[in-house]
Amino acid sequence: MDIKDVGESNLIQRIADTYRPSHSSIIVGIGDDAAALSVSSQTVLLTTCDLLVEDVHFDLSFTDSYYLGRKALAVNLSDIAAMGGTARYFLVSLALPPHLSLSFVDDLYRGMMELADECHTQLVGGDTNASPSTLMIAITVLGEAHPDNLLKRNGAQAGDSIFVTGTLGDAALGLLLLQNGPPHTAPSTVHTLIARHRSPLPRLTEGKKLADNHLASAMIDISDGLLTDLRRILTASNKGATVFLSQLPHSKDFEQNHLYPEKTKIDCALAGGEDYELLFTAHPSKEKEILRSSTTGDAPITKIGEVNDSQELVVLDHDQKPYPVSHLGYDHFLSTR
Amino acid sequence: MDIKDVGESNLIQRIADTYRPSHSSIIVGIGDDAAALSVSSQTVLLTTCDLLVEDVHFDLSFTDSYYLGRKALAVNLSDIAAMGGTARYFLVSLALPPHLSLSFVDDLYRGMMELADECHTQLVGGDTNASPSTLMIAITVLGEAHPDNLLKRNGAQAGDSIFVTGTLGDAALGLLLLQNGPPHTAPSTVHTLIARHRSPLPRLTEGKKLADNHLASAMIDISDGLLTDLRRILTASNKGATVFLSQLPHSKDFEQNHLYPEKTKIDCALAGGEDYELLFTAHPSKEKEILRSSTTGDAPITKIGEVNDSQELVVLDHDQKPYPVSHLGYDHFLSTR
User: Fold this and answer.
1) Structural contact between residues A229 and A221, judged by C-beta atoms closer than 8 angstroms
2) What CA–CA distance (Å, rounded) separates A222 from A213?
3) pLDDT interval class at A332 (50, 70, 90)
4) A213 and A172 in one domain?
């Protein structure tokens, strides 16, 4: 059996099942956004790594090295945000094809370091290597959290509300515009959508605020699409959920973009991925404080659904009828739990 | 200017010069074997990452996935050993070509996890991805040390003796045997040399003992060859050195291998690389304790040279005459300091 027949998540599950770490210092091992390691009674060390592979995770005809550098770091910082932590340090391993220009690498670092400055994160090491042909960027981020404030995936309770930060579908619509080539008559707003694809913002401030104020019961960042990442929370928590299409938050540029049919846009929001917004669950009693906390310059927070005790994830459309998601590959949605 | 015109160490230097970390918690940033980060008055967090790229760092016709897994982790653990630290946790990012078999990945993990068990190190996370064609393994190791016991590269003093653990040249001679195909009549001892190339042992116990007993003034692991790695200590410490060819330690299998001319073997020991032994300097007053400490089942330790105030690195042959190293690319040996 080959790797292509197994799939990434099955492979990770296989590894996690075979090598379940048992050391008492490991608070969270494989299978959450970041590992959480006890270093003192006051501090949990968070660590996560993400590898970006050319022509798998990025296409150099759709981005440039500055934005690629920003994004490679952003997706890792987003994992720290999803634990409610503070990012502190990062390491960068590069595999560089020989034909790459020095200015490409300089711009890649410039992008990374600008975002690192914005997020108060320090570059402390790395490894630079030749690659026969494919560019790869492996980043490890180290962060920290208070042990009482960690936000894992497995804490969702029946009756909890489901929230997201920011808006959904922008990044996927931006990628679609890049892939199809925006028409010359496209409104200038397409640039905002493309920027959301090229340069996601890790929600570190929002994640930490939710964690430190004990507002959320479970959290994840949306890297692979709302449905996939919500499914991860539900599977870890052994719950089901209903999501209301009418409540999904969209940017003005997303709303006003009529280059694609409505259904395509809905699918971007449900399954497009790469928004790197935070998706979290919370007890209804926290709702007021959550929505209030989002008015101070952070990303807005929107309630989009409810957790329940079923084993199903149902999306309801504007008429409260189930929105079919089979064409998105979610036929047996929670069947692999 | 392209990457291929710059070279790896110049690129790393360029990055380190541009982005010199300034945060007070960073005890050691880019440019040593591992970064050292202050987490408490008693503990320094060590972190290092190494990326192994197919057809650059390994050739799948010379090894198998079990040994590749062991080696990928070993080279990272060796960096923790070179700081005098204890390895605690690791993360693994893989880029896997689609044609790879599942058993290949299972064996890769089996190799990693066996060495991890031997070294009391825990797998806590990672990332698994598709790769268009090239297999890559990026590992990050987290370790710890007491802040007073850290061993950096920049502490060598004039008058210090130079020591190495274990034996030199085995891994390079083993690779040569693999590349040329060992003759059918080759003695069985070639297997030991090949094993040294395939499966290096990180010298964690030895490194920690040297650090905890304050026996060494500077330390590095030999990944790129004795001369290159000694040069790194000398450059960081602003010193020169003399190395005595007659004192280089060799394994019995290395000594008894007569498939290659003596000069080839000397060059393997001086510049071959991948021995992953520890190279360190120490005040002469520590010599007796150092040599005594190596008799208890650890790798033996051998004195191979002396640090001086010159700006030169000189290798003396058995007749105490300078051994020419220009054919190894060391013409202007310390000129780039």
Assistant:
1) yes
2) 21
3) very low
4) yes
Report residue A209: phi and psi, to 5°: -65, -45
Domain membership flag for residue B188: yes
In a domain, A10, yes or no: yes
Shared-domain flag, residues B235 and B123: no
How many whole angstroms from its chain centre is CA B201?
A: 10
Chosen from B32, B41, B136 to mutate, greatest number of chain A CBs within 10 A: B136
The band of B336, judged by pLDDT with boundaries at 50, 70 and 90, is very low
Q: Nearest CA to CA, how far is A152 from chain B (Å)?
A: 15
Model confidence at A333: pLDDT above 50: no
pLDDT at B88: 97
Do residues B122 and B224 share a domain?
A: no
Asked, for residue B337, whether it belongs to a domain, the answer is no
Closest CA to A268 of A182, A172, A191, A189: A172
Q: Which residue has the tokens 């949990």?
A: A44
A245 CA to chain B: closest CA distance, Å? Answer: 31
Of B91, B94, B105, the CB nearest to A47: B91
Q: Which residue of A has its CA nearest to B109?
A: A15
Question: Of A102, A126, A149, which marks where a domain is finished?
Answer: A149
Please determine, for residue B337, whether its predicted confidence score (pLDDT) is greater than 50: no
- Cβ-based neighbour number of residue A256 at 10 Å: 10
pLDDT band at A151 (very low <50, low <70, confident <90, very high): very high
Looking at this predicted complex, what is its ipTM? 0.91
Whether residue A97 sits in one domain with residue A56: yes
Is the separation of the CB atoms in B207 and B278 below 8 Å? yes
Handedness of CA A176, A178, A181, A184 (dihedral sign): positive
- What CATH number is attached to the domain comprising A206? 3.90.650.10
Q: Is the model's pTM score more than 0.90?
A: yes
Residue A50 CA, chain-centre distance (Å), reads 11
Residue B189 and residue B264 in one domain:
yes
Contact between B89 and A43 using a beta-carbon 8 Å cutoff: no
Residues A291, A263 within the same domain: yes
**Torsion (CA) A74, A80, A81, A86 in degrees, nearest 10:** -110
Q: Give the torsion through C-alpha atoms of A221, A227, A233, A235, to 10 deg.
A: -150
Domain with A44 in it: what CATH number?
3.30.1330.10
Question: How far is it, in rounded angstroms, from Cα B123 to Cα A107?
Answer: 33
Q: Is B282 on the interface with A (CB under 8 A)?
A: no
Residues B129 and A8: beta-carbon distance below 8 Å:
yes
Asked which of A107, A127, A149 is the last residue of a domain, the reply is A149
User: With 90 as the cut, is the pLDDT of residue A29 above it?
Assistant: no
Q: Which domain holds residue B66?
A: 3-149
Q: Which residues of A touch B137 (CB under 8 A)?
A: none
B29: which 2 tokens?
């940033």
Question: Which A-chain residues 142-171 have CB contacts (< 8 A) with chain B?
Answer: 142
Provide the 8-state DSSP code for A82. T
Q: Are residues B145 and B169 in the same domain?
A: no
Confidence of residue B293 (pLDDT cuts 50, 70, 90): confident
pLDDT tops 90 at residue A45 = yes
Span A312-317, average pLDDT = 94
Q: Do B24 and B127 lie in a common domain?
A: yes
- Domain-embedded: residue A155: no
CB contact under 8 A, B49 and A21: no
Q: Answer whether A15 sits within 8 Å of B39, measured CB to CB.
A: no
Q: How many domains does chain A have?
A: 2
What is the arithmetic mean of pLDDT over A40-56?
92
Q: What is the pLDDT of residues B42-87, one digit of tens each?
A: 899 999 999 999 998 999 888 899 999 999 999 999 999 999 999 9
pLDDT at B61 (0 to 100): 87
